[in-house]
Amino acid sequence: MTDVPEHVRRNRVLWDEWAQKFAAGGEEAWAQETPTWGIWSVPESQVKMLPEDLAGKDVIELGCGTAYISSWLARRGARVVGIDNSAAQLATARRLRQHYGLDFPLLQGNAEAVPYPDASFDFAISEYGACLWADPRRWVPESARLLRPGGRLVFLVNSFLMLLCMPPEDNVAATNRLLRPAFDVYRVEWPGDVGIEFHLSHGDWIRLLRGAGFEIEELVEVRPEPTATTRYPFVTLEWARQWPCEEVWKVRKRAVPAAIR
Ligand SMILES: C[S@@+](CC[C@H](N)C(=O)[O-])C[C@H]1O[C@@H](n2cnc3c(N)ncnc32)[C@H](O)[C@@H]1O
Question: Residue 108: beta bridge partners?
C-alpha cells in the first residue's frame, strides 16, 4: 500500500476517520435478510442489483466497506471476496463476519489494482464504493480484467443530475437549479478535507464502459417510495421523487472483444 495514487491515500485517511460513523449502519444491513439499496433503502425487487442465481459463482465487492453486500452474496451461496481501501472499515466487516459465522476473504487494497488473476470472477458489484471513490479510468478496466467473458458488473452511485444541483456547502440538500456545468466533470473535491470522488456524465460512463469491453444492459434511475426515509442530508425526498438522485449501471463483459467481432 506504499505506492498508491494520491486520491487513494487521501480517501483511505477519510474512511478510516469515518468508519466509526458507518458501523451501526453496517450492523443493521448485516442483520437484513433481504437486500435494500442506496440511501433510500430501495428494495431489491425494484432495482434488481443481484443476479438470480449466485450459488457457486465467484463474486467480488469493490469497496466493500462494512461488507454487508458481501454477506448477502455469501448467504446466497456465492464465493465472495470483499476488497476495501480502509483498515478501519474492514475491522467492522471482520467483526461482523465473525459474529455471523461467515467465512470469506476481506482484503485491504485498492480496487484499481486487485491482486487476483484475469478472469477470476463472474460478478462484480459496488454500491457507493470504488464506483464513487476510485478513479473510473483505473477501476473500470480493472473490473473488466477481473471478470470472465459474459461476467457482469453492477454499481450504484449518485446520479449525475443530482451532482449538478448540489451546493458546495456541507449538509445542504440538492436544489432544483443547475449549479455547475455538466462538461469536464470527473474528479470532484468538495470544500474542506473530505476526500476525492469521481462523477461522470452518462456519455462519459458509456464511452468508458464500452471502451473497457462492457456492453451496457440497463441504467436504472432510482426512485424512492413516497414513504422512504434517509439519514443523509444531501437530498430531500421531495427532490428524489421528482428526479433520480441515484443510478444503477448494469453492464456485461463482452464474450468476444469488439476488435475481432
Ligand atoms: C460508502 S462505503 C461503501 C460500502 C457500502 N456499500 C456503503 O454504502 O456503506 C465506501 C467505501 O469505499 C472504500 N473505498 C474508497 N476508495 C477505494 C478504493 N480505491 N479501493 C477500494 N475501496 C475503496 C472506502 O474505504 C469505503 O469503505
Answer: 84
Residues 6+ away with beta carbon under 8 Å from 26: 65, 66, 67, 68, 92, 93, 96
Query: For residue 227, what is its C-alpha cell?
Result: 414513504
Find out whether the beta carbon of 15 lies less than 6 Å from any atom of ligand 1. Answer: yes
62 C-alpha to center of ligand 1: Å? 7
Residue nearest to atom 6 of ligand 1 (CA): 127
Among 84, 89, 132, 234, say which to mutate for ligand 1: greatest number of ligand atoms within 8 Å of CB.
Answer: 84
Asked if residue 143 has its Cβ within 6 Å of ligand 1, the reply is no
The total of other beta-carbon atoms located within 10 Å of residue 61's CB is 29
Please indicate whether residue 135, judged by its CB atom, sits closer than 6 Å to ligand 1: no
Mean pLDDT, 10 residues at a time, over the chain (261 residues)? 86 97 98 96 98 97 98 98 98 98 98 98 98 98 98 98 94 95 95 91 98 98 98 96 98 80 52
Q: Which residues contact 146 (CB under 8 A, 6 or more apart)?
A: 60, 114, 116, 118, 119, 120, 121, 124
Is the separation of the CB atoms in 28 and 156 below 8 Å? no
Side chain identity, residue 187: R
